[in-house]
Amino acid sequence: MSDALERRTVDLGDPTPARSRHAGQRSTVAVTDEVVVAGTASGDIRAYDRTTLEERWRASTERETASVVSATPFGESVAVGERSPDGVVRVYDAGTGRLRWRYAAATDVGAPQKPSRFFLPYVVGIRSHRDRLYVAARRYERDGEARSFESVVYAFEDDGDLAWTHRTDASPISLDVRDERVAVAYNRCPGEQQHGLVVLDTADGTVRYDWDPGSEGQRRVGDVSLASDGAFVASHGDYRGYRLRDGGTERWSVELATPTEVGDETLYAYPNHVHAADGEALFVTGNTYAEESRESESLHPNEHTVFGYSSDGERRWSAPTGGFAAELGADGDAVVVPGAQHFRVRDASSHGFSVFDRDDGLVTRFETDGVVTAVSRESGVTAAVEEPVVYHDDGTERGSYRLHVTGSDERVR
């Protein structure tokens, strides 16, 4: 695998800069056959020719408080999802920008309890598979110390008709689709639904099986990636990575960022992402936390790290991400990992995005002035969104709101 070093950029506007801590996803990007589609913090959807980066079309959401936070190719269309008062899913013709259909998730999860960002209905994941679009959306409420969620998984037909829905009171964080299965990862389970992983049937949404790390508290699963004969899971409950057989029995598990004594502190980090292919897996960990307090004097040795594992659970390689990874972009053997804020160290030299080979580790890294919050990859083309950032103890604004596109198009080889 090779990646061209040429990098092209497009300005995306002038949003409020990100701060030291992460305030949630507010941008997205998707590479389709013909265009690169960026969803922005201001609610714009912009499509650029993937070869020339000339703007092909632009659309806008209907709310000033909307940001476009998820996107995926869907046949000859592109589907996007919002974090907004309505939590809208929109499907556009990728070539022309014509709006084909829309659906407001707030119809099912309810209106926001408050107008602030964390309470807005949130389309957390979109995946297309065959002729259907699968979507997970949630809404958060808080009453004193009590948290609650309303969430729905949708299966949409190509024309926007609903095939089925699956409703719970847990918080979905990601979903994956393969063959006849839809896997949904729930990172918080404060209500009746107490399984961090639920695998549904693509035909009608019935539950095939569920699984949970068995840990105490609300934290359960950070991400899921389906294999041909099961699934890989990044566990928030016990900070491990799991390989599951179809049906939910455990084949193996590995320690990723489990509690570790560093000086006088016991530290851990959440495994936030996993990507699997051909029985092998790549896991990514996030920020350091201390068991006894929110602050920490030290760092967990496995925080902000990418790990490559073989099909039998053997660690083959590891590499740093530099900062928090909001998502992954994957295509074949290549996996793109963004690097956003490292809120404890706040080292601007760590900003950027990296391309890893699933078997061999790091291929190349691209540095940016700001933090990288969204990535996508298709047929050798990588796209990333950079956002400006101001750290609280520095005051200097770094970076710009830009789309980066790099790599060589493998379709023409």
From TrEMBL:
Residues 42-209 form the Pyrrolo-quinoline quinone repeat domain. SUPFAM superfamilies: Quinoprotein alcohol dehydrogenase-like. Residues 1-11 have a biased composition (Basic and acidic residues). It comes from the Archaea. Residues 1-26, 393-413 are annotated as: Disordered. InterPro entries: PQQ_b-propeller_rpt (IPR018391), PQQ_rpt_dom (IPR002372), Quinoprotein_ADH-like_sf (IPR011047), WD40/YVTN_repeat-like_dom_sf (IPR015943). Pfam families: PQQ_2 (PF13360). This is Tup1 like transcriptional repressor. It comes from Halogeometricum pallidum JCM 14848.
